[in-house]
Amino acid sequence: MTRKANQRGPRPVDRDHPLPLWAQILADLRRRLDVGEFTDAFPGELALVAEYGVSRHTVREALRRLREDGTVVAGRGMTPRLAGPIEIEQPLGAVYSLFSAVEATGHVQRSVVRHLDVRADGVMATRLGLEESVPLVYLERLRLADEEPLALDRVWLPAQLARPLLDVDFTRTALYDEYARRCGVRLTGGEEHIRAVIPTAAERKLLGIGQGTAAFAIDRLGCARDRPVEWRNTLVRGDRFGVSAQFSARDGYQLGLDARRLA
To answer: What is the dihedral of CA 179, 182, 185, 190, to 10 degrees?
Structure first.
């Protein structure tokens, strides 16, 4: 690597160059990242405006591209920072709580409750093995880790079992803990399907991600013994979440393909 390529600090933009200013800044920021310049902290918008002598709009466009490719995390009112490695992992083959996983990594989990009510939903009732007209408790939350959006969580529960949950403040508590404590319902197993998806524009806005970031869609049928007691759909940011599994020479590792997804 030449001394010039390894040079730290910003390079001046060329206003006569055919490449847009934001693209020049983007290329230079990537160069600076490659030489390890921002290991301690990534500069904020105003600092970059001063360094490159350009408008805030130009800096924001360069940051938007870095955000879309997962290099930095930034949003309205937030100082840009380098995106860390995947921090939240879901173990396959276990009854899993996103709340517990976030807290176990040392981060603070908080939820913004968007809906908590009783409603009829024939499709979801059927998935729970119930008559289509049976009322369901519906809970929708935007899950945050250290105030940064992590997942959009939607849960349907039989109202006959779950009505006491309507009085719960789910801002800082786990659904499964409250389900067991207030309703006497404890999950013992179920089925889960995980697939990669491209979120809708509305979902991207809620999750604070760009067009280039995929997400995991997790569909779960939770059971108490053999009785279905939960249908859940969780949309998790793909840049902050992963799945893990263990395997052995004796038992091997089985990956199930859902034929309906392949049709």
So the answer is: 0
